[in-house]
Amino acid sequence: MKFVHDVKADVTADIVYMMCPMHLLKLDEMIKGLENGQVLEILTDYDGALEDIPQWCVKTGNEFIGMDEDEDYYKFYVRKTVQ
Fold first, then answer.
1. How far apart are CA 47 and CA 16, in angstroms?
2. Measured distance CA(30)–CA(74) in Å, rounded
3. How would you classify residue 63: left for phi > 0, otherwise alpha for psi between -120 and 50, otherwise beta?
């Protein structure tokens, strides 16, 4: 897992307390509204996202920048790279 700090996100999706598969559905929905090169920050406390979000990026061709861990949730950063 790639850990990053101080990533500047263009949009944040707060999905803390949402259950699976909401993290991927919300990610898919939010990334569609971004321009190429923009960064989406996803806040979630779902442990499954540790595997799911990087795999989603590989599957869709978007860039997984990395993640950061806060006291109560994870922060994932994804750059839109495909239309």
1. 11
2. 17
3. beta
